[in-house]
Amino acid sequence: MKTVRIHEFGDESVLKYEDVPVPVPASDEVLVKIEAIGVNRADATIRRGAYTFNPDSFPVTMGMEFAGTVAAKGDEVSDFSIGQRVVTYAGTGGYAEYAVAKALRTRPTPAGIDSRTAASVPVTFLTAWCGLVEVAALKAGDWVLVQAGGSGVGVAAIQVCKQIGARVVVTAGNDEKCARCIGLGADFAINYTSKDFVPEVMGLTGGRGADVVLEMVGGDVFTRSLEVVAPGGRFVSIGRAGGPVPDKAPELPGGRSATRFFVNTYLNERPEGYRHIDTFLQRIGQGGYQVIIDTIFPLSEAAGAHRRLIGREHFGKILLVP
Questions:
Q1: pTM recorded for the entire structure
Q2: What does 237-276 look like in DSSP terms, one character per residue?
Q3: What is the CATH T-level fold of the domain 2-120+291-321, as seen in this structure?
Q4: Euclidean distance between CA atoms 245 and 253, whole angstroms
Q5: For residue range 42-86, what is the model confidence (pLDDT) as tens digits?
Q6: How far is the C-alpha of 202 from the C-alpha of 221, rounded, in Å?
Q7: Element (H, E) at 223
Q8: Diameter of the chain by CA atoms?
Q9: CATH class, 125-265 region
């Protein structure tokens, strides 16, 4: 089968399109014939070597989420049948024609949801839901600042916030993205290339600040986002695409809290959380959530997918297809 692997850290050129044997599922795994693969910031971060990673693990096949059909399964797997359509948050291995995934991390894809839509859901909606609702205790009436509103997680976060009944302020890199965020339900959108988001957020909230801040950029954006956390507010940091962030969340005054949130770690400790995917897919099927797919690349052009992701031109999800 074809796969995309890295044998060293580096830029997009280290992504190698190669032939490898089809993997064999362990007793608690399913083998999925892949139809669509989500591309995520974490993939690019791993590729660059910015995550703690053991080089002895090379070569590595990235790909946290994918959808397709069950081609084989382990002896202990009873929840799925051969040929069943599924989506999984496997964590690794998805840049391929076939991949294995823990049955515990895998969910059935319901009728009416295609594999490209399904593959766009696990990372973005689980990150948004768990980070906002379960960690930050988001509630109706809260003011929420979502940085990078046009990202995959940003698009999901806007919709989760509006479902809860929160008031949403987003940042985005151009007026078109701002307008699209408003179209998804954001109450206010700030073009960070022409306006300083700190005074804008403080003005919108009457000088109080945001009750919840979802920060996924890092660097200066991380530091300045701390300035707009309201008294008693919750700051959740989930990424560092634009610069470094502290390993440990800072101590904040005034009853404020800050959390460095890693969805993989969170779900490893709470595996029942993968079942949220069922609810997300159900809401998508009913029209309650939208999946926005920006661009679809062939698996052989994974480097191009990474370039588009890092270039921040996209709005919504970038996918690969074998």
A1: 0.95
A2: E---TTS---SSPPP-STT-EEEE--HHHHHHH-GGGGGH
A3: Quinone Oxidoreductase; Chain A, domain 1 (3.90.180)
A4: 19
A5: 999 889 887 766 667 899 999 999 999 999 999 999 999 999 999
A6: 15
A7: helix 219-225
A8: 60
A9: alpha beta
